[in-house]
Amino acid sequence: MSADIDVTVSAIRAVARDVLAIELRHKSGQALPGAAPGAHIEFALPNGLVRQYSLTDAQGKAHQDCYTIAVGWDANSRGGSHWIHERLRVGQALRVSAPRNLFAMDPAHRRVLLLAGGIGITPIVAMARHCAAAGLDWSLVACARSASRLAYLEELEALAGNRLRTHFDDEHGGPIDLSTLLAPRQWDAVYACGPAPMLDALTAMTSDWSTGSVRMERFKGAEVPAGERRVFELVLQRSGLETEVGTHESVLDAIERLGVSYPFSCREGICGTCEAPMLEGEAEHMDFVLDPAEKANHQRMMVCVSRCASSRLVLDI
Ligand code: FES
Fold this sequence. Notes:
Elements: E1 3-16, E2 19-26, E3 32-33, E4 40-44, E5 50-54, E6 63-64, E7 66-72, H1 80-87, E8 93-97, E9 111-117, H2 121-134, E10 137-144, H3 153-160, E11 164-168, H4 169-172, H5 178-182, E12 189-193, H6 196-205, E13 214-217, E14 232-236, E15 241-245, H7 251-257, E16 275-280, E17 283-284, H8 292-296, E18 300-302, E19 307-308, E20 312-315
Parallel strand pairs: 9-10, 9-12, 10-11, 12-13, 14-20
Antiparallel strand pairs: 1-2, 1-8, 2-7, 3-6, 4-5, 4-8, 14-15, 16-18, 16-20, 17-19
């Protein structure tokens, strides 16, 4: 990660059951680079992990006093959630990246549906504040397993009033019916963040919507099942190196095996850090960074998850 801002934890507070909001300020008290709604920062934890967290307070200004993220307790955490909930304390020094935005709002969208599931509310909170401040025609549908688990519920009720619709699985006996929600098609765009089943369903139901009108941010990338992977030849043109990429490794694994240091962060196809220019080959894109047009032209790929559908992949590395 490009970790280049030294910050200190200035506050920690519970914003829902099992959800902590973490406020970070510059170590020397100066203003932090501003961020637009949808932006995230990378967070270098002292245990060596790097994680991406959406800024709940990104408001599109040139600078801001602090960064606020919200982190849910995840029983299946690979380390980030557990460390933050169990070890992080006020006053702790950390290093974060400058904000990055792969989930930016398009100013051309004036009628906007915001859809959040669980901890996916974090970028959506910032978007809701922006929609209210900009006077857009907007609605927010916020879903969670129960009311006690929806972060920022009180603030959203005050901000959104009757623009807010909540759905709690424990009261309705299951997840929200997206087909009913989407049927009116009254929005220019839907911005959604939540668990994979919700976003997969949204993707399927909006396949005929115009390009760019359905935007989402995922917590976790997709995967090609190991049984469907094929071996291919990898050439690193500038390095003058080549190898085979096996079925149980990623292109990034193979690059590292060749002794080449290449930037990465999430290793899940969601942050864009490992993007590599392609010179030859047909990428089998598995990331959630590139849009369909970018995927179709096979000029760039995320080497942490994407593979090659042809027998030879040449990268400009
Ligand atoms: S490292 Fe994040 S997309 Fe590859």
